[in-house]
Amino acid sequence: MTANFRSLLRHETILAVLLVLVLGALATQSDRFFTTANLLNQGRLMAEVGLVALVMTFVIVTGGIDLSVGSILGLTAILLGVFWQNLGMPLPVAMVLAIIAGGIGGLVNGLIITRFKVPPLIATLATLALYRGLAEGISQARSVRGYPEWFYVLGQGDVWGVPTQLWILGALVIVAGVILGLTTFGRATYATGANETGARFSGIGVDRAKLLIYTASGLVAGLAGVIFVSRVSTTRSDMGTGLELDVITAVVLGGTSIFGGRGTIIGTVLGLILMQALKNGLALSGVKGDGTIVVIGLVLILAIVASNIFSRDGEG
Amino acid sequence: MSASLSTAPRAAPAMRPWKRIAAYGQEFILLGAILALCIVVGIVNPRFLGANNLTNIFAGNAYIAVAAIGMSLVIISGHIDVAVGSLIGVLATVSGLLAVNGYPIWLAWLAPIVIGVIVNAGVGSLVAYLRIPSIVVTLGMLSILKGGLISITSGAWITNLPENYLIAQFRLFGIPSPVWFMVILTALVALWMRYSAFGRTIYAIGGNVEAARVAGIRVERSTVLVFAIHGAFAGIAAVLFATQLQVIQSTVPPNLELTVITASVVGGVSILGGTGTVIGSTLAAILFAAIASSLIFLNVSAYWLRSVQGLLILITVLADMARRRRLR
User: Fold this and answer.
1) Contacts of residue B40, Cβ cutoff 8 Å, sequence gap at least 6
2) Do A130 and B132 touch (CB under 8 A)?
3) Residue B24: which pLDDT band, with cuts at 50, 70 and 90?
4) I need a surface site. Which of A96, B63, B250, B306 has the fewest CB within 10 A?
């Protein structure tokens, strides 16, 4: 485990150095980058991906994957609108129920994966289509707008000068970091990903851990959905399309092994910030939105190549 | 994804008859599902079974089946490619641009296939020699291809395609050419996978990569080759896709990679590698197309299509897991 730990540190060090270089380059490129307003705004934009990426770290550490998060986000957004406008529920109740629905979506993923032994890639590929289809079917391409003013605090407002969702993200970073790094549940997560059969024989409740993790993944995707609606003031059924790619990129960029067993929350946070900084910096220096995707793809591949070359001790 | 506990390649010649049927179970299930769907929808709305509609279903979706052939090889070898939709989008655009800018027609048909092979050989090399998981490489490729395509073309329409370029609209014996491509390529690859040494190599690598290595199979070279072949099929699919209509929109068709992967998996290709056939993936592609069309004929809002698809994937995968358990 110590050898693993050292290689982990190494990946995160590479990442931190890379991040400093990128931030430095961006700061010299554009004087608008290192302004408080811009940095806080970037924090606002990365909160949704960030929330989902935290739990995705757990998912990938167990050796699994959850491709359905973007669809759960979309479904939650649609349900929020339907509960509130069409069923006439008070908005706070609608918010809670929508997030719970996201959790149920995650629970279903977990049940398919643990009870029926369907590989996570396939299970969540199926529910990616299913949940997005439900969102499209329920909404029939109608959007819901006109939410009360207080609701926008979540996605557009500030608390003590910092975007509301950044507080939520910060709190969950600490919670996730403590759980993965310091608790027995965290150790069980690593053990499951490193050697599932071994973990089972050691008496670890592998299935229960996975069930909890996939449910949590659905819950944060639901929470991200509610924040998304609050940020853009409307619901549409295509919200969160492709979110899973951004999330997985952040997590893998952060040094989590796609084969499971390795990864940290700090790494994910670094990966997330690096991704957002690249997006923003390129946009400021005049690269169009689609050009930035190219760079992110390149960075993802290069980061993994570099980390493979520097730490040749293990697989992946 | 590789080197996992997987059953021996399916349909090995020495199997007992009932086992052999069970081994081809997925193909029978799919065939049954297609027939059942046709009968039920045909009773509700006989126009569904009209020659015109059936031709449209087959011809309009053959490119998905063709792409799924290559995808099946990749998945059987224990890998995955989530960038295939973006690759097809790029290759279709390249093909269309060559055609409208006065290059010879044969070049517009051939270039996508060659470029597809080169790009995916690169992807395969990263996977095989640098040992980067295929999902990570192709996730990166997806971003690069998709972003690159849109930032270069801004999604513009390519129009004024020459008449003799539109190969997907050609007919032979009254049957549209995409159907010929789908049927012939599926049959050829199915036979090749079953009887050629390289076909068995792909199963061996996906079944147990270490055993394959010990058995003297050059795993790295074979992996690159599998990805390259997959690139060729993506190229053919791109040409069929590009020549379907009179115009090409130079963007990535939404969710195409998922549709292709889904066709492979529902067709019985195990995501764990080592098992599956391309006949199954082609049948699955036909089934999807039939479902999409039947929703229209049953007057169901098209917005429900994706949930029906998702549910269908789940059911087939669960049925497959149950069948596998019985086989053991």
Assistant:
1) none
2) no
3) low
4) A96
